[in-house]
Amino acid sequence: MNKKVLEYINKQKPSQKEIIERLRDIILRTYPDIEEELKMGVPWYEGKYYIVGLKDHVNLGFSIEGLSEEEKKLFEGTGKTMKHIKIFSPEEINEEKIVKLLKVVRKV
Length: 108
Prior knowledge:
By secondary structure, this protein is of the alpha+beta class. The chain is 38% helix and 23% strand.
C-alpha cells in the first residue's frame, strides 16, 4: 500500500473516492505486482495508467505509446502520450471493459 496514494484517495469527495477505490482495486487485482506511486499529484501505475479525481468525475488515464490508431480510438482526450476514459458514477464502472483496456496498454 502506498501511503501517499491512500492520502490522495482519502482527500476526495465521497463519490469520486468510491470510483477511485474501485478503479485502483481493478488495476491491483489485474496486475498484483504493479508499482504504484504518487506522481504529478495523482496515483500512477508504472507510467502506463493514472487515476485522477476531478470536479464531477474521475479519469482513468492510459499510455497510448505504441498503440495502433484503432486502439487509440478506445480512449478519449487529445494527449500525445496519454488518453483517458471518464467515469461519472460507480455504476458506470464496467470492470470487464476496464480490464480489456488495461491489457491493451500493458501488452505494448
